[in-house]
């Protein structure tokens, strides 16, 4: 085993909780958005700071500091989006993230100890 320090959940505090520092982004709203199209530089389910206008929606990904411009029509047609504007929403998001982190950390420790076994298949194979 190498002696590289591990990152704890407390050290992995992303800047998702504060909008970008530029004056334009101070009125931005926090959204969790699924981008599944190849035309955007980011893909997957991510947290964004969003400025929603009448014609364009501007997205800022705080962790990798990437900004994306999308048309309002595409924004409205996207079904996988959720607004995080209340403290309750933020608390639920943090709990989900911590749960995922804890499962991954437990699995990593089991792999290092050599006690990890792959989970059983949840479905039956098709009979041909």
Question: In words, what does this structure look like?
Answer:
The structure is a single chain. The chain has 2 helices and 5 strands. It has 2 domains: 15-83, no CATH class; 85-114. Strands 4-3-2-1-5 form a 5-stranded antiparallel β-sheet. Strand 3 and strand 4 (66-71) form a beta hairpin. It has helices spanning 72-77, 87-113, and strands spanning 29-35, 44-52, 56-61, 66-71, 81-83. The termini are far apart. Residues 9-14 have low confidence and may be disordered. The chain has 128 residues and is α+β, with helices and mostly antiparallel strands.
Spell out the key features of this protein.
single chain; 128 residues; alpha+beta; 2 domains; 5-stranded antiparallel β-sheet
| Count of structural domains | 2
Q: Helix count, per DSSP? A: 2
How would a crystallographer describe the biggest sheet? Answer: 5 strands, antiparallel
Terminal-residue CA separation: 45 Å
State the low-pLDDT regions, or none: 9-14
Helix content: 25-40%
Strand order of the largest sheet: 4-3-2-1-5
How many strand segments? 5
Counting helices, strands and paired strands, the structural category is: alpha+beta
Strand-residue fraction?
15-25%
Mean pLDDT: 83
Radius of gyration: 19 Å
Which sequence of SSEs, written as H and E, runs from N to C?
A: EEEEHEH
Shape field? extended
């Amino acid at each position: 085993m190498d002696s590289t320090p591990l990152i704890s959940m407390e050290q992995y505090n992303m800047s998702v909780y504060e909008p970008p520092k530029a004056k334009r982004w101070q009125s931005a709203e926090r959204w969790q958005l699924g981008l599944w199209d190849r035309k955007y530089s980011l893909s997957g389910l991510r947290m964004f700071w969003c400025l929603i206008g009448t014609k364009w929606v501007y997205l800022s990904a705080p962790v990798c500091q990437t900004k994306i411009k999308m048309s309002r029509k595409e924004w409205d047609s996207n079904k996988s989006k959720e607004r995080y504007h209340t403290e309750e929403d933020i608390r639920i998001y943090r709990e989900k993230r911590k749960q995922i982190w804890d499962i991954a950390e437990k699995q990593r420790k089991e792999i290092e100890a050599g006690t990890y076994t792959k989970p059983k298949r949840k479905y039956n194979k098709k009979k041909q």
